[in-house]
Amino acid sequence: MFSTTAYAQAAGGGGGFDLMALAPLVLIFVVFYFLLIRPQQKRAKEHREMLSKIQRNDRIVTNGGLIGKVTKVHDERDELDVDIAENVRVTVRRSMVSEVATKGGD
């Protein structure tokens, strides 16, 4: 009925651990670390330092876009009193400050 003879294939090598198959994943992680993770951590550290150095008379910009002058710093509550206009004072959480526009002096 069948005219050709079928031969069994030889068994392949064992399913052992191949280090070279893992190398591209390690390379991708290293690239992500140096291009994405490390710079983001550096920016976050600089922002934390900037927030800790806010003083009276500094001009700040909040995350909401308000620009004002710091009149009082409440370290125990982590809040700032900010003048945004004449006779208009708001209280802002320190963590909501996006940048210090100008450093003031007493």
Please describe what this structure looks like.
The chain is of the alpha+beta class. It has one domain: SH3 type barrels. It contains one helix and five strands. It has a five-stranded antiparallel beta sheet with strand order 4-3-2-1-5, covered by helices on one side. A hairpin with a 4-residue loop joins strand 2 and strand 3. The protein is rod-shaped and about 105 Å long.
Task: Provide tags for this entry.
1 helix, 5 strands, alpha+beta, SH3 type barrels, 106 residues, single chain, five-stranded antiparallel β-sheet
Topology diagram in text:
Elements: H1 19-52, E1 59-62, E2 67-74, E3 79-85, E4 88-93, E5 97-102
How many alpha or pi helices?
Answer: 1
Compute the separation of the termini in Å.
104 Å
CATH class membership? Mainly Beta
**Overall SS class:** alpha+beta
Give the strand order, joined by hyphens, for the main sheet.
4-3-2-1-5
- Give the topology string: H per helix, E per strand: HEEEEE
Q: What do the pLDDT scores average to?
A: 88
Question: Low-confidence segments, ≥5 residues, pLDDT <50?
Answer: none
Number of domains: 1
CATH topology, what is it called? SH3 type barrels
Percentage of helical residues?
25-40%
CATH architecture: Roll
Q: What percent strand?
A: 25-35%
Q: Main β-sheet: number of strands, strand sense, barrel status?
A: 5 strands, antiparallel
Short description:
The protein is of the alpha+beta class. The chain has one helix at 19-52; strands at 59-62, 67-74, 79-85, 88-93, 97-102. It has one helix and five strands; from the N terminus they run αβββββ.
